[in-house]
Design goal:
172 residues; alpha/beta; Rossmann fold; five-stranded mixed sheet; two-stranded antiparallel sheet; 5 helices
């Protein structure tokens, strides 16, 4: 007979659930019993089985995020899309962001509008931590390119305002 050789290899894994045999540790102190087929009393043997919500979320972040950003799967994301307004006091840019957010909400999407008076770097860092699957940036452009950028976690795309809501819908 030929011997079978197995090669051990290291592989990372994520524990999202657990199973523990608790035995009669708790049932003994509670006096929790059952009767078998012959009517004889026995302590219940317990087990603990669970999938923790925190573990599921941590797994999603680890599997889909990057070193510096959360990239929620659409099914777990707190928002479908985040609209980031880089208006810096420019009412036209802010109005553009508000209009886009309203159009996306009217299309049935959960929208987070960041209209704070904060620097772009701060807004983008916060958006990376929130991790909406799609981010739309409304900003002034020095060139004649489109006034918005639609970003999913794979790519950035500049699109005209009139097309931004439709493009987000296509990505969602």
């Amino acid at each position: 007979m030929r011997a079978v050789r197995w090669r051990l290899q290291f592989q990372t894994a994520i524990e999202i659930g657990h199973i523990f045999k608790l035995g009669t540790r708790y049932t003994a102190s509670l006096g929790a019993t059952f009767l078998d087929e012959e009517g004889k009393e026995h302590l219940i043997v317990m087990g603990s089985y669970g999938i923790g919500p925190g573990r599921v979320l941590a797994t999603a972040i680890e599997q889909t995020g990057t070193e510096s950003a959360i990239a929620w799967p659409a099914e777990l994301a707190p928002y479908d899309v985040e609209v980031v307004s880089l208006h810096a006091g420019n009412e036209e840019i802010l109005a553009h962001a508000e209009q886009l957010a309203a159009e996306l909400e009217a299309a049935g999407l959960d929208v987070l509008l960041d209209d704070r008076d904060a620097r772009p770097g701060e807004k983008f860092a916060d958006a990376d931590l929130i991790g909406a699957p799609i981010r739309v940036t409304s900003a002034r452009r020095r060139s004649r390119t489109a006034p918005s950028t639609v970003r999913n976690h794979a790519s950035d795309e500049r699109v005209p305002l009139a097309e931004a809501a439709a493009r987000v819908g296509a990505l969602h």
